[in-house]
Structures are given as structure tokens and as C-alpha cells.
Amino acid sequence: MSIPSGAIVAYFSMEICLEQAIPTYSGGLGVLAGDTLRSAADLEVPMVAVTLLHRKGYFTQTLDANGQQHEAPDLWSPETVLAPESARSSVEIAGRHVAIRAWRYDVIGAGGHVVPVFLLDTDLEENSEWDRTLTDCLYGGDSHYRLCQEVVLGMGGAAILDAMGYAEDATYHMNEGHAALITLTLLERELAGRARHDIGEADLERVRRRCIFTTHTPVPAGHDRFDEGEYRGVLGDDRAQLLVDAHVVEDHTLNMTHLALRLSRYVNAVAMRHREITQGMFPDYPIDSITNGVHALTWTAAPFQELFDRRIPEWRRDNQYLRYAIDIPLEEILDAHAATKASLFDEVLKRTGVKLDPAIITIGFARRATPYKRADLIFSDINRLKAIAGRSGRIQLLFGGKAHPRDEGGKALIRQIYAAAAELEGHVQVVYLANYEMDIAHLMTSGVDLWLNNPTKPLEASGTSGMKAALNGVPSYSVLDGWWVEGCIDGVTGWAIGRARGGPDDEIADLYVKLERVILPLFYGLPFSWANVMRNAIALNGSFFNTQRMVGQYVHNAYFPPANQRPIPVAGAENAKEDVHSAWAGVQ
Ligand SMILES: *Cc1c(COP(=O)(O)O)cnc(C)c1O
Q1: Residue 270 has pLDDT above 90, yes or no
Q2: 401 lines ligand 1 (CB under 6 A)
Q3: Is the domain defined by 296-545 classed in CATH 3.40.50.2000?
Q4: Terminal Cα distance for the chain, rounded
Q5: How does pLDDT run across 114-133, given as a tens digit for each residue?
Q6: Is the CB–ligand 1 distance for residue 367 below 6 Å?
Q7: What's the number of CA atoms in the CB half-sphere (13 Å) around residue 459?
Q8: 312-359 tens-digit pLDDT
Q9: 458 cis-preceded (ω within 30 degrees of 0)
Q10: Which of 453, 465, 546, 547 to mutate to test the pocket of ligand 1 (most atoms within 8 A of CB)?
Q11: In what order do the strands lie in the sheet with 476-479?
């Protein structure tokens, strides 16, 4: 890695998962942001991060006897865990000046290097009652609230970094389109008082040189769009016109993905397959791929940390040493897993009163409850599942995941899992753990025997929970989408459900057939062959799908590329756009 002296990366993300006690994230995007900062601190990358404070968190999920989700604000007191910064800035929102302050959290790397995180807060006396709520709720409110939040994040964040003296040599990394309005502030800086209509390609190019954009979703609803009335009202006529003059507004709509694409010098998707899909959706921009990872130390459970420390102690400093897990004796893998499984079952008992049986294969599924993730796919044929469990070996299923408060389809899915659990009583034990957060994710991804994932292809950009599982020797059983296209060697690191280009019927059939004929016989009949798959998951996937490798790639390919780096070719999948639209239509 070659990092120029004085350079700094300013990483912007609407959500960041810093630690369990700070509820400023909703799911995968936030966990990835937190893991990115943890690895940047370990690797001593000069970086600062900006996000919103989210005083009311995302929400706390409780589930009633029918699986109906109830939500409560996740209140916390920033004052007790964060340090106030003296710097102030302000942004203009719908003609009002909104004052912003920041709270600081330090992410400290293995060698002591600090990546400061600034959490923006508009709850200040000089602001109106409504403006004071702008940094309260993550993904709460309507589209007007969202746009105002994005002004605070992008423009307010850029302003406060300037006030703190970080702006001079900064490279701005937009983690998803929510922060794309940074580019508007940078454009205004380039204009430096010149008339707006003076804006030219050279100004855009200077902004572009400073910006990196990572797009995270092929789901059309994942791209924020604001219509003309909305963005003119919030940004004001002058700024709105600047965006129009800079040709970043299309069809009278401000699309944050489009804005970030147009004003970044480097754009990446988060897995190889996701790059193909994204390139097909945006054929005019060269799109690279840096596959996601997870922070290895954070997501490796204590029994496996101890095992790796004993056998491959270098793994902490350099995650690539996990490759040498391939020589760890299989008994030791099985022993460590018995310990993680026991911790998980203790917690399940404590939370639900259900005593799971450690001798039975336990399949985990946990992620945001939303239709395209198809949490209920394994219940497509309940009688068949019953029969398989009766014939080939007993099965326990453990679920987790929150539905966004307005995602009725997601909430219905949770109820369907409860209904299936009732139907399967006496045949297959099904447990749903409420309030899936970092601590439960940690226990589940390390303590189950098999990690199930079956989203509608190609809508999963990457997925990261299967990577957490791999670090703990838990193989994945997943459709070939997102990271699993790269991580799956069928029968070696886990198993594929269906074929790369197959449809849902093919997947349902395969799900049951492989479970019955391959997975259960191996688990119950050949424990050492099973342990071999566990060990391969660590050695082949844990060693690669981590944020240490990922941040290294960002440094090398995006932040500080060598001077002679060749441009990224524009090469898309011909049918990617149709694939996404038909898949999305299918899950609506
Ligand atoms: C890892 C993680 C996720 C993301 O999981 P996916 O596999 O990407 O769906 C979401 N929520 C929590 C709490 C996590 O730890």
C-alpha cells in the first residue's frame, strides 16, 4: 500500500454499527461500515468517518405469540458513550439555517491507530422543534424527512469536516447514495463565488477527482429519488439549478445514485456478480468490484479465536494466515464448534425458554425480513420438510431478523414463519429470536451448524452474514447470488441451492433434495467429512472474505491507486437490467 502523506479519506455512511450499545445502524450496510472502519484502524489508513447520531436508534423489535412485530424506539444517551466536539457548522434547509454539532467516537485499531467517527446532531436549542428531530430516526419519516437528513449528512458532514480542518486533502468515500449531496458542497467550493451558470466540465472533473462511490443494492427501491418539487423546496432554487446545470438531474428527478455516479472518479459494486448487474443498470459508467468482507476478529467467537491463536497466531495481524487453518486437526474444529453451539443454545434458552438439542443439526437464517430474502422458502412444502426430518435426520431451525416498520410484506413473512413453526410442531423445532442485532448475529453465525441464505437472484448485492459464519467454520447453504457466487465450491466450502441461472422452482426442488441426500447424511453419518467442510470454510473463505483484504483493495484500487493504473473497462452483463426488473417485479 502506498498512502501519500497528508492524505485522508472521509468515509460517509448513513448508518454505522460501532458497537452493540450504540444503535445507529439497521443491518448489513451499517455492519459493513463499522467493519470497514475497524479494519482501516488496524491497517492505519488515515480515515475519518461521518454519520448521523440517530438518538432514537432504529427500533427495538418484539414479537407476539403470532409473530406480529411491534416496534419501540431504541433510546440511548449519546452523552454517556460519546465525546462532544466543539466544532459547529450549519446547513440551509428549505431556507432555514440548521445548526449542526458532532459527537466523537474513536475506532481504535490493533496497533492503536485511531479512526474518529463524527456523529452529526441537530438537536440544538437554536434549531426549530422539527429540525431538532432530523438526526433522530434512521430510515424513519417520509421522503421529505429523508432528503433533509441527506442534506445534513452530505452537506453538513462536509461542512463540519471543513470546520475541523480535514477538508484540504480529503478523498470523499460515499458508502451508498445517501451521502451523495457531498458533491453539491464540493461543486460550490469549486465555483468559489463564480456565477452558477459558469459551471463547466473542468469543475465537475475537479470534484470527481476527490470522490469515490460504493453502490450497494440492485433493488430499484434502494435508490433514493426525489422529485423536482421536493428537492427544489429543500435545497432552494439556486442550488437546485446548480444541479440542473451540472446535468445531474434526469427527468426532473434527483436520483442520489445517479448524482454519485456522475461525480465520482471511482465507482464500485460489492461483489463480482453485483458489478455485472450494476454495470447493466448504468452502462455509461465504468464500475469496478470490491467484494465485501467482515472484520475477522470482531466476528470470530472466542473458542475459534483461541484455536487460531494456538495454531496460527499470525492470523490476528494478517488475516491471510487463516489460509493455514487447512492444517488444524479436525477434532479441534469440532471441539471449538461444540462450545459456540453451547453458548448459542444457552442464550436461546434464556430468551425463549426453548431447550434446543445439541445433537441435532441446527440451520440458521437471519437477515432483514423483507420479501426478496424469502425467509419462508424452506417452508414451501411443509409435508416434505416433515418427511425429510423423519427419514434422514432431525432438524432444528433458528430464525432472526427485523422488518422495516413500513415493510408489511416483511412483517407478514415473520408471521408465516410462526405459522409454519406451529404446523411443524413435534417434527421440526423452529425458533425465532427477536431483535436481531450485533450480539445475536454473533451467536447465531458462530453457533449454528449450517447457514442458510436464499434471496431472489440477482437482488442480493453481497450479503455478509455467511462470511461471519465461515470464520467460525459454519458452512453456507445458499443460492448462487452475491458473495456466494465467489465463495461456493459445492461440497467443499458449503453447498449451492440451485444453479447460477436457475429459477425459483429449480431452487426449491434443489433445496430439499440436497438437504436430504447430501447434507443430512454427511452431518449425521460422516462427522469428520463434515468437519472437513467446516475447516475449508475457514481456510478458503475466512481468509479472503474479510475487511482487512477489502480495505486493502479500497486503498489500492480506489483511494490511492498507483499512477500507472489502467482505467476500468465498461463491461456489463447484457441482460442484467431485465434480470433485475423481472426479479423485482416477482417479489412485489
Ligand atoms: C451481518 C449482519 C447483517 C447483514 O447480514 P446479510 O447476510 O448481509 O443479510 C445484518 N444485521 C446484523 C445485525 C448483522 O450482524
Answers
A1: yes
A2: no
A3: yes
A4: 44
A5: 999 999 999 999 999 999 99
A6: yes
A7: 22
A8: 999 999 999 999 999 999 999 999 999 999 999 999 999 999 999 999
A9: yes
A10: 465
A11: 429-433, 395-400, 361-366, 450-453, 476-479, 494-497
Among protein residues, the one with the nearest Cα to ligand 1's atom 2 is 28
CB of 373 sitting under 6 A from ligand 1? no
- Residue 26 banded pLDDT, cuts 50, 70, 90: very high
| Residue 484 near ligand 1, beta carbon < 6 Å | no
- pLDDT for 221 equals 72
Which residues is 496 bridged to in the sheet?
478
Which residue ranges make up each domain of the chain?
Answer: 8-62+70-289, 296-545
The CB of 482 under 6 Å from ligand 1? The reply is no
Q: Is the pLDDT of residue 2 over 80?
A: no
What is the residue with the minimal CA distance to atom 6 of ligand 1?
Answer: 463
Mutate which of 31, 402, 453, 460 for ligand 1 pocket (most atoms within 8 A of beta carbon): 31
Residue 166 pLDDT > 80, yes or no? Answer: yes
CATH code given to domain 8-62+70-289: 3.40.50.2000
Separation of CA 60 and ligand 1 centre (Å): 16
**Structure confidence by residue, pLDDT tens digits, 496-513:** 999 988 889 999 999 999
415 lines ligand 1 (CB under 6 A): no
Compute the distance between CA of residue 309 and CA of residue 440 in angstroms, rounded to an integer. 24
Counting atoms of ligand 1 from 1, which one is nearest the CA of 465?
Answer: 7
521 vs 530: CA distance, rounded Å: 10
Query: What is the C-alpha to C-alpha distance for residues 91 and 259, in angstroms, rounded to an integer?
Result: 19
Domain 8-62+70-289 and domain 296-545, same fold? Reply is: yes
Where is 289: in which H helix or E strand? strand 288-289
- Residue 446 CA to residue 437 CA, distance in Å, equals 14
Point out the ligand 1 atom lying closest to the alpha carbon of residue 440.
13
217 lines ligand 1 (CB under 6 A): no
> Quick one: what percent of the chain has pLDDT higher than 70?
99
Q: To which H or E segment does residue 311 belong?
A: helix 302-311
How far is ligand 1, taken at its centre, from the CA of residue 61, in Å?
15
